[in-house]
Amino acid sequence: MFGNIWAIRLFIVFFLCSCSYGNDQEKIPYRSDCIVKVIILIDETEKENLENIINKIARALIDAGSRGFSESRPEIAINHNDRKSIYLQYKDKCTDKKNITNELFDEYVVPYISESFSYEISEEVIYPSTDTIDAQGDFWRD
């Protein structure tokens, strides 16, 4: 009789733990939910200066936190085949990734760079890969 009670208690503990784990996993966003593609738009006169602009954008993104950007800094990747594509992967507030990206660029990137450029945030869903951004960790699930 006591064996059955312990078995029932053990079953209940495992059941509650598995339910709790499943709910926690559902709260973690997919990596694709947190990725934004920013397309750098430059005119023909700045085309030869693209690498310099990309380097300044990368530096501005990295330094944004020290200049007052209050959100957590996203992971950053620049496509080697398409240098005008910059990928940002956020660790939190993924549902607001486009607004945060606009704030980041409008207030902390564009004013930091003297060269003339504009940007566009892609509406497409971006999936993590070696061609985009492939940051991994406890912040996301696949």
What does this structure look like?
With 142 residues, the protein is an alpha+beta fold. The protein has a domain at 31-121: Alpha-Beta Plaits (2-Layer Sandwich), CATH 3.30.70. It has helices spanning 2-27, 50-63, 97-109, and strands at 35-41, 75-78, 85-89, 118-121. The chain has a four-stranded antiparallel sheet with strand order 2-3-1-4, covered by helices on one side. A hairpin with a 6-residue loop joins strand 2 and strand 3. Helix 2 packs across helix 3. The chain is elongated, with a radius of gyration of 21 Å.
Question: From the alpha-carbon coordinates, what is the Rg to the nearest angstrom?
Answer: 21 Å
Mean pLDDT: 85
Output the number of helix runs: 3
Question: Class by helix and strand content?
Answer: alpha+beta
CATH topology type of the domain at 31-121: Alpha-Beta Plaits
Number of strands: 4
Determine the N-to-C terminus distance.
Answer: 45 Å
What is the topological layout?
Layout: H1 2-27, E1 35-41, H2 50-63, E2 75-78, E3 85-89, H3 97-109, E4 118-121
Helix pairs in contact: 2-3
Compact overview of the structure:
The chain is of the alpha+beta class and about 140 residues long. The chain is built from three helices and four strands, in the order αβαββαβ. It has helices spanning about 1-25, 50-65, 95-110; strands at about 35-40, 75-80, 85-90, 120.
Pick out its properties.
142 residues, 4-stranded antiparallel sheet, alpha+beta, Alpha-Beta Plaits, 37% helix, elongated
